Amino acid sequence: MERTKLTPVVALRGAAGVAIVVGLTLWLGTPTLAVSSAFGAFAAGLATFQRSWRPRPVLALAVAVGLGISTFLGYMAAADHVLFATLLAVWTLFAGMAWAVGPVSGLVATQTIAVMLVTVTLPTSVLGALEHAGLIAVGGLVQAALIVLLPVRPWGIQRDALADALAAEADYARRLRHDPMARFDPQPLMDAREAAELTPRQARNRPRQLGGPRGVAERIRPVLASIADPVLGAPAEGPERDRARDLLAAAGAVLDAVARAIRWGKPVRLSPETVATLQVPASGPMLKGPARRSAYRLIALLGDAVDATDEPVRSTRPPAGEEHRHLLRPSVPRLVPLALRALRREARWSSPVGRHAVRVTAVVLVGYVLGTALPLGHGYWAPMTSVMVMRPDFGQTYSRGIARFAGTVVGVLIGGALVALAHPGPWVNAGLAVLCIALMYLLMNTGYSVASACIAAYVVFLLGIAGGDWSQTVQARVALTLLGGLLAMAAYALFPTWETPRLRDRLADWLTANGRYSLAVLHAFGNPAERRPRRVREALLDSRAARTAWDEAAARALTEPVRHRGISRTKERAAEAALATMGRATMLMEAHLPDRDAEPSKGAESFAEALKAALPAAAEAVRERGHLDWTGPRAALAAWQAEVGDEGVAVRGADLLLDALDELAEGLSPGPGGRNRAARRP
């Protein structure tokens, strides 16, 4: 267990919501109603622990509405097995497609299927169905009310995202002191950007501390890299390199201090040594040329970060005229058309989400039929296990399936042993169930097997409230959980959606996105008067998204039991390193973008046009295992160098960029290990 990931106060609040709902329904109603209502409070609390930037009460209310509707519809169709199977298939298909909207939407939709499978087994009438559905919805309302009445570290997830981004920048600065080519993972910056997207209501209440440092963090990264780079920054050895290392260390200290201030809502505290390092020495600037310009810009940006963070930590309305100076996140009503467009986009046979929806629907139907036919009772556990472990990619499904089975065995054995030895009554069972939920909320980030063990014991105690047979519960739970997991694995074997064959497409997408980023920067050098910072910014975001898509695809491919198709692991690593270097070279040029009144560079514009002409064919060659041809850009660069020499920042950056493209061609060229048979430039 990682203590930093434990949130005991939040876990107690979520468990209190379950306890309130179960206790009241057990006191005022019946054990059956208590069992039914517990699922709503449990699922609503579970949703609030997911990684979502929306307010926690909104998540709890959304889950409450979805659970109530699915429960009522399930009760209406439960009397007829054919009708219920049809409803289950349609509902599961749409729930599988919900992953197109996002992982939180997919998880919430999965919970509605589980509730539909479980609660309809409790006997009731039409009025009783309304009552059960209402109680499940009330569970979500209680969780939402507790979040509003008992706030725990408001804006905590947004604070953590921004602080993590700044801490990642600080770590990057320290690593650059010893390794000028150190790689930087842009994921923290991407998370911080997502966290900065606000609805109008959120924008009116956001602490001012969260408003400015993210932009500084985005602008400071290329400056750090440009100071450390031995080609475009300080020389590799000598006094200038020592001064650059001191500046990088001070930048790391400042960024860490700003991150701590944002995370805990406190003022920034800097040591006198750090402040002194960021002053220009009495003997004058020690850095020269582009490195000096980068150093001055770094000092200014660090000052902006401290100033933005040291503003009062309080909720305030934005000044007049600044109401929309934030990234817009659509409200829940406005999210509906966006969700529908996402569903239409993924409703195709080649889509992993679409294939997942069809796969999980077939598995749930087969599991429901087999679970009902087997003489074990609790037949819903087989399809429920399948739907809870299945994800659009094989790796997560496989690991979750094993973890769920292992956790279920442990959970039902512990829960069954307690029930068998102590013979607890309804109230004691309710207390033990709430205890299991509290442990699950607390240890959720420890691993899926631990969460599964807590959930399994929770179900044992919950059914004990209604007088279920513990021995039958243990046997059926283990057997049907194993059946559900095997069905999920079999579905991937019979109807796979492998990521491995699409790795070349992901590489081509990354190359294309990197190319657009490079072109946007080169055009800024070619025509400074017409440069568009927004265009560069959007191209950078596209490049990051493409790199993240590649990283996720490569990680999923490593877990798949299939051989590579078209690209070996060696070529994969070589191409990844080359494209990362291409992005870094472009970032170094971005750190030195000229002012609008600077002289245009015809060489930069010619090189950009040659690169633009070569990129489509290169991307197609990556997909089709062809040869990458950079003859045009190489000739344009040679002409540019003949005109201005090698002293300009832009021409030196373009040289680094083309070296990275040559490495990409060498890494992907046919032959063992991806060795290029064509002679490289001396």
Q: Quote the average pLDDT.
A: 84
Uncertain parts? 312-324, 673-682
**Shape verdict:** globular
Radius of gyration: 29 Å
Report the sheet with the most strands, covering strand number, pairing sense and barrel closure.
2 strands, parallel
**Residue share in β-strands:** under 5%
| Strand arrangement across the biggest beta sheet | 1-2
Give the domain tally: 3
Classify the helix fraction into a percent range: over 70%
How many beta-strand elements? 2
Overview of the molecule:
The longest helix is centred in the middle third of the chain and has 29 residues, at 394-422. The protein has helices at residues 8-28, 31-48, 56-77, 81-97, 103-119, 126-149, 156-178, 187-195, 200-205, 213-228, 239-264, 272-277, 289-309, 332-346, 352-373, 381-389, 394-422, 426-443, 448-465, 470-494, 503-526, 533-558, 569-590, 602-624, 631-644, 649-668; strands at 197-198, 327-328. Strands 1-2 form a two-stranded parallel sheet. It has 26 helices and 2 strands. Helix 3 runs parallel beside helix 5 (103-119) and helix 21 runs antiparallel to helix 24. With 682 residues, it is mainly alpha-helical. The protein folds into 3 domains: 3-153 and 350-494, no CATH class; 156-205 and 207-314, no CATH class; 500-674, no CATH class. The chain crosses the membrane at residues 20-46, 58-76, 82-101, 108-127, 133-152, 357-381, 401-420, 427-444, 450-466, 478-495. This is Integral membrane protein YccS N-terminal domain-containing protein. It is found in: Cell membrane. It comes from Streptomyces blastmyceticus. Residues 67-174 form the Integral membrane protein YccS N-terminal domain.
